[in-house]
Amino acid sequence: MTKICKEDVKEVSDSNPLHTRSLYETLYEIFLPHNFPHSVHDPDSYLKYQLFDTLQGLCSYLRGALSMRGILKATTLISLSSNSSVDSIVLTWLLRDGISLISSLLFTTIFSPSPSPRFSFSSHLKEFRLFADFINDVGMTLDLLLPICPNQYLLIMTLSGVCKTLCGVCASVTKPLITNHFAKTKTGNQADLNAKENSQETFVTLLGLALGALLTKLTESESDNENENDVRVEMFTS
Length: 238
Description:
There is one protein chain. This protein has 238 residues and is mainly α. 79% of the residues lie in helices and 0% in strands. The chain is built from nine helices and no strands. Helix 4 packs parallel to helix 6, helix 4 crosses helix 8 (190-218) and helix 5 (86-110) crosses helix 7 (153-182). The N and C termini lie far apart (94 Å).
């Protein structure tokens, strides 16, 4: 009789997960693979990787907010000081995108397994994953230099675009390989790992947007606004 009662209680708890699950269990289900830690190879390494990957993504969004401000600030200063048309700025961005795409094709061709089997994406996974973070930092640093060197707008924008494109190539190639490393092929849970990876990235994106807006507001200086006002005054008085 006691056994039946326990089973009945278990069935009721399973039918009402929202009333019985704690916050920890809910977050566990949202961000970690089903049946973790038994569903992945080397759970400790998986948790460490996801922790540092989350921190890296959050830092990237914060730096991205600052780099976007640098791009917009430099674009505004150039358009106001030199009376550049919108069409010329659009052509600059199109040229940057075109060169970035060409560099992506060349980079992928060089480091694909067929022409260079000794040094390729699959044979040097960690190196290319680290290179993705490094080259992304270089691109964002170049964006921050735009307001300081507005005369080199086209050159800096092009180099920054190339760096970010190479980062995208390395990240898109290495991430599935890392997922396959942690997945258990017998259960075929690669899709579950990818889904939870997307959930983690979505959460980091939302947090990065909020913190990025706060960081942009805190780092805003009065001298920047004064310089923009001086440019506007010179333009209208000339």
